Amino acid sequence: MELISKIIEIVIEIDNNIHQAILKMHRPWLTKSMTILTHLGSSTVWYILYAIFFIFIKSGMDITLLTNGMGGLLLVLLFAELFGLLIIICLRHLTKRERPSKDLAVRIMDPWNRYSFPSLHSTRAFMIATVIGVACPEWWGYMMSIAIMTGFSRLYLEKHYLSDVLTGAFVGICSALISLSFFNSF
């Protein structure tokens, strides 16, 4: 138990040092860019894209699309999204880690969102990058680059610490791989 406490102490120290270093990088133009970039991990953006994706698939859906093709990809993404969200909510309630910036408004609909650990934006970005990267290997590098930039935007905008983003990335990749293996077993 003492070892775990020491590891947590070291991680928090590293997180704080990196947070301070990133604060020194702040520039108005970069803040605007990061504010736009961070929306690539936003639930609102992706729920709208999932809905549009579903509408286009449903209009020409045939039963084979449920297990392969774009319909299968949508099912994998949605399953991974739900699985990742469940893990994030549980971890946030267990850790109750405060965000780097204390001036964040908490929406009434999701009070668990006041907590920082782990990053849901990073989870979603890495989950989507992994699923699409496996489905379309030629996009792997682009998708991972976008996921990494989304994770960095969360650090830059003081929404998360490095350990939040790294853990979110890990949860996202794992939820994607679990979802992919689940749907590939049928």
How would you characterize this protein structure?
The longest helix has 27 residues, at 69-95. The chain starts with a helix and ends with a helix. The protein is mostly helical and 186 residues long. Mean pLDDT is 83; it is low at 60-67. The radius of gyration is 18 Å and the shape is globular. The protein has a single domain, classed as Up-down Bundle (Vanadium-containing Chloroperoxidase, domain 1), CATH 1.20.144. The chain has helices at 2-23, 28-37, 43-59, 69-95, 120-135, 140-156, 162-184. Helix 2 (28-37) crosses helix 6 (140-156), helix 4 packs antiparallel against helix 5 and helix 6 (140-156) runs antiparallel to helix 7 (162-184).
Chart the SSEs and their pairings:
Elements: H1 2-23, H2 28-37, H3 43-59, H4 69-95, H5 120-135, H6 140-156, H7 162-184
Task: Please tag this protein with its features.
186 residues, mainly alpha, Vanadium-containing Chloroperoxidase, domain 1, 7 helices
What fold name goes in the CATH topology slot? Vanadium-containing Chloroperoxidase, domain 1
The shape is globular
Average pLDDT over all residues: 83
Structural class: mainly alpha
What is the C-level CATH assignment? Mainly Alpha
Count of DSSP-assigned helices = 7
Summed up, the domain count is: 1
Give a quick rundown of the structure.
The chain contains seven helices and no strands.
